């Protein structure tokens, strides 16, 4: 059924956010502003990503940007840009990032939200012109407004997220996010400088024929995972693995598929990070009709204990995830 709040494809993200804000009586202007700040950071990172190959060149030519960033790796640049956009925006009181060991205090103790980010995920793809992404997760703080935020604000659990999403820098740049109702995608039109609603109310296929994992790790996967992958081959499913979680997730979300990062010898508790990789994608996945599990429990039910904790991740079409789980001990 078409949603009473539905807006036609082609509206801008700003317009969409404004519309949602008036449609939901409890939606706060602050969250809207925070989402706009994230979209702005996404535009800035889009720009950096698209001139990535020139960064060393401009450095070599002695062209220094004001922040002296020309010698820095793109993921560090993205981290700086993102943190700065959130600090300047004023709605986030604290940030955690894959690139920083500890909580980053923005200085805005009156901000109502905290944000967990992976500013540029897919590190092995950054220097080689392959799709990469930004992942974000937003909580309303539990500490009192006006005080210093703390670890507790970030360890509330995945079901307490108020918004989550990603920005994929691929053949085009797209931002997909949810505020807990529907999942929507906005493709970036660089000539306008606007994200445009292109994928309204995403419903992922219940089943799929694509599986995504690092086949080189196969020998160290547990028996149940190997069994499931054998079945995928017997059924002549398609193997697709970019090695950028956002890109693999996005493809599977639209086309139907499963992404697997099981525990391995090298990463016995899984490789991916709970707070800024698994939680936000799991939150989005559930809104789009997908499932996300660690193999033992729903990702969103995992109790977080530390900022950079890792988890195994199996995420995608519900029929595929359930079939896989039938093989896990
Ligand atoms: P990163 O945070 O260092 O970029 O690692 C996360 C990435 C994911 O984007 C991707 O799905 C996975 O690591 C690929 O890992 P591997 O190269 O081990 O297959
Ligand atoms: Mg990462």
Proportion of helical residues = 25-40%
Distinct ligand kinds: 2,5-anhydro-1,6-di-O-phosphono-D-mannitol, magnesium ion
Mean pLDDT: 92
N-to-C SSE string, H for helix and E for strand: HHHHEEEEHEEEEEHEHEEHEEEH
Q: In angstroms, what is the radius of gyration?
A: 19 Å
Q: Low-confidence runs (pLDDT<50, min 5 residues)?
A: 65-70
Q: Roughly what fraction of the amino acids lie in strands?
A: 15-25%
* Major beta sheet summary: 8 strands, mixed
Binding site for Mg(2+) 1: 98, 118, 120
Binding site for substrate: 121-124, 214, 241, 259-261, 271
Cofactor: Mg(2+)
Organism: Spirosoma linguale (strain ATCC 33905 / DSM 74 / LMG 10896 / Claus 1)
Detailed description of the structure:
The structure is a single chain. Residues 65-70 have low confidence and may be disordered. It contains nine helices and 15 strands. The chain has helices at residues 13-23, 29-50, 55-60, 74-89, 151-154, 223-234, 245-255, 274-287, 318-325; strands at 92-97, 104-105, 113-121, 132-140, 161-169, 173-178, 183-189, 194-199, 210-212, 238-239, 258-261, 272-273, 291-293, 310-311, 313-316. The longest helix has 22 residues, at 29-50. With 329 residues, the protein is of the alpha+beta class. The strands form three sheets. Strands 2-1-3-4-5-6-7-8 form an eight-stranded mixed beta sheet, sandwiched between helices. It has a five-stranded mixed beta sheet with strand order 10-9-11-15-13, sandwiched between helices. 2,5-anhydro-1,6-di-O-phosphono-D-mannitol (AHM) is lined by residues 98, 121-124, 214, 243-245, 248, 271.
